[in-house]
Amino acid sequence: MWSLKKEKGVPIYVSIIELILYYIKNGDLLPGERLPSERKLANYFQVNRSTVVHALDELVSLGWIIRKQGSGTIVNEGKWGISTTPRTDWRRYLEQNAFAKVDPFTEQIERLIKQSDEHVLDLYTGELPMDLIPSFSFPPLTWKHFLEEEQQDDLGYLPLRQSISRETKKEYGFSLPPESLLITSGAQQALFLILQVLLQSGDSVAIEDPSFLYALPIFQAAGIRLYGVKMDQDGINLESLEKMIRQHRVKMVMVNPSFQNPTGKTMSMKRRKALVELCQNYQIPILEDDVFAKLNFVSTDQIPPLKKLDPENVLYIGSLSKILGSTTKIGWLSAPTSVNQQLAEARKMMDFSLSIFPQLLANLALTDKDFSNKIAHLKQTVEQRGKAVFDVLDETNEWDVSMPKGGFYIWAKWTHGNLRPKDWAVFLQEGLLIAPSFFFSENQDSIRINFTRVDGKNLLIFKEKLLEVTKKIAFDSKSL
């Protein structure tokens, strides 16, 4: 039992604290149970007694254990005064650079966006431009109306959950029961809750490579290890994934199978079925991010979500923010009822309350008689913009590019290999703001473009800027 795993860079006393906390939380050490003496623990761990004393002192200060005269050290029998985690070792965090600085390239992009310079074309931001966000007319609402709304519970506003359930049925031909839906303030809150409740620090998660998840700091903050799995035209490579599962004991697979961010790829039906089967065999849950579901350009070739193929094993994240604007902050998670109840309870304990205002407004939009027509018009416009951007990229013969079947993004791969820092700087100099591939992977050879932000007015500007950037970096590549 008293076997200590010493991790490089982690102080030994911290490892001892974490081990004892693990035993207490798992029931290996029961309330009132006596711990071995300090000398015995030092022998077990092969460390100095002073190191053990340091660790036990911390646990006493946190309230997890109690020192009693004549009785030794025992596990606290109550909950009063107990802290859930050890005090932060700030020196350790700073030494490991846990508070990583913002990437210089990101800083420069954000500075250029804030300047609102007419010279700058922002195809970096991952949102719809204001001119594309559908407009809805809402009935007059009074403050009293919000106060009297009583259909909000821990899972979220019931009429909104019912509307989402109906929309899913209409879109995909299968139902997400309202009781299986947890309304969140955006897709990222759903992801955060999953990391906090269903995973533990040190767990391994497999994601697509490249993936927007690579860029999110919440994984590192939660102590989750990410492992990227390369993709082909059909989606995530299953041979590589299975190898990853065996090698790293993967606890969850997270994918964005439809109009993937950043590549825009859509996983084939055959690959989806095989992925579901693989994860069933290893009893590993799948987290499916489907935030672009409403932006499918090919309505006659609708590939069902993974959730439809395996309702019990797939956690499903959806969102309205991609079609109603990021300030809407409405997302949802579909999971087994028992899981959602745990997630809802955790959110309540974290005091991440969900306002009724955006939920009520989102429900009014979903139930608007013109909702379907407005979304159809949005899809048509977005597809037209995507085709225009694709044509410009394709005509250069310097970028390897495919037209996506939906979503926001086109992924363009530089045909001459990796781009160097001086090449990325050219994009900034020309005022063409894109998301570089190193945001989403270790690769340095591609760019992500949000084509929804290229309208008829700035299409020519985009073409001129892209051609200038391409000419400059191509010249540098050939002069090497």
Automatic annotation (TrEMBL):
Record family assignment: In the C-terminal section; belongs to the class-I pyridoxal-phosphate-dependent aminotransferase family.
Database matches in PROSITE patterns: HTH_GNTR
Entry protein name: GntR family transcriptional regulator
This protein's UniProt keywords: Aminotransferase, DNA-binding, Pyridoxal phosphate, Transcription, Transcription regulation, Transferase
A GO term, aspect molecular function: DNA binding
Organism, scientific name: Enterococcus ureasiticus
Domain HTH gntR-type: 10-78
Annotated CDD domains: AAT_like, WHTH_GntR
